[in-house]
Amino acid sequence: MSPDLSDPAIMVQWVDQALSSERMGEEYAFTVMNARTGEIVGISRYLNIYSRDRGVEIGWTWYSPKV
Asked: What are phi and psi for residue 18, nearest 5 degrees?
């Protein structure tokens, strides 16, 4: 399960871990933005990337409560 991302310190750790995993080619993070306002409203990540099988696991997705 996801950590409590309402704590700013935990959110920073979570984002740092996502970016580190992306640099290593293990995961890919995507920002979800409101098309009208440009505001960031969430994130989703691809996990367990299987290049040989052309497969991924979609996980760690969250959205702001306001959307």
From this structure: -60, -45
Q: How far apart are the first and last CA of the chain?
A: 21
pLDDT tens string 54-64: 899 988 888 88
What span, in angstroms and rounded, lies between the C-alpha atoms of 27 and 58? 10
**What token pair was written down for 46?**
């691809």
pTM, two decimal places: 0.66
Neighbours of 27 (CB within 10 A): 21
| Dist. CA 67–CA 33, nearest whole Å | 11
pLDDT at 1: 61
Alpha-carbon gap, residue 48 to 67, rounded angstroms: 28
Cα atoms in the Cβ-side hemisphere of radius 13 Å centred on 46:
12
Domain map of the chain by residue range? 8-63
